What we know:
The protein is mostly helical. The chain has a single domain (5-321), classed as Farnesyl Diphosphate Synthase (Orthogonal Bundle), CATH 1.10.600.10. Helices cover 74% and strands 1% of the residues. The protein contains 15 helices and two strands. A hairpin with a 2-residue loop joins strand 1 (94-95) and strand 2 (98-99). Helix 4 (49-59) runs antiparallel to helix 5 (66-89), helix 9 (192-216) runs antiparallel to helix 14 (281-300) and helix 11 crosses helix 14. The longest helix is centred in the middle third of the chain and has 27 residues, at 101-127. The protein is globular and about 60 Å long.
Amino acid sequence: MAIKLNDIKSPVADELDIFEKKFKQAMKSKVPLLDRVTYYIVQRKGKQLRPMFVLLSAKLFGEISDKTYNAAALVELLHTATLVHDDVVDNSYYRRGFFSVNALWKNKIAVLVGDFLLSKGLLLSIDNNHFDLLKIMSQAVREMSEGELLQMEKARKLDIKEDVYFEIIRQKTATLIASACACGAASIIDDKTMIDKVHLFGEKIGIAFQIKDDLFDYGNHEIGKPKGIDIKERKMTLPLIYALSKASSSDKRRIINIVKNENDNPKKVDEVILFVRASGGIEYATEKMKNYRQQALDILVEFPDNEARKSLNDLVLYTTERMR
């Protein structure tokens, strides 16, 4: 039976409603244009996975506090800022099926809105003397930037090996989920060893989450129609990296040439997808994802056994079994 997000949310459902109100308040500005843009952003919110990780990680160790709400708002403000900036960097005009901020208000305003959200997050921590949360999230933003630049550097030559791929996704994706979990725990306890363990739990599931995302690009009978978006954007993901590592020299040259020079040709993109499938790239990446998921679950059992832990267990399964 499929895990439902509403069931996962149940231990923190009331707290999520409170968080939403606090988050909207945190985005307020005296500038009408900013208010219009931030209102648009709030209306398009996703599944709220990161605030859930914050609140559930906090509830592992005690009752949710004002500091926990500030932690969740900080994570979401910085995450939203990075998404707005990413859309500018990627020239992307859609986000979750809606027009992106840069599509509606152009790049200059989008960059400034991202800067505003970043500053609001920093000030939220400083004004409440939550310097421990600020340190955790500042390190995450640094790593996310480094991961993005590392990916850009490697995309020029398409020479990404598996170890580099894992470092990129650890920095780009996993570090934010890890920081959300760590901030949640740090809002309740001050045991550094335990907070670091919660951070590691978040990192493991963050890596599994990204591999799952990469698998969507190739599709299968469970996921549906292949998309090939990563191939079109010249992103070297785990299924392709594995397939190339097993390919003959001629096949490797042919596939890399398609990704580099013919990635706007749908037939050629399909050729890459079929090559990856035939090479066992899907199965290999799926096994790696399951391995990281299991590492996350193994860490999770070391935490207090309560309803928050059960929901985190289900959230781990949800993020790796989701259909989109």
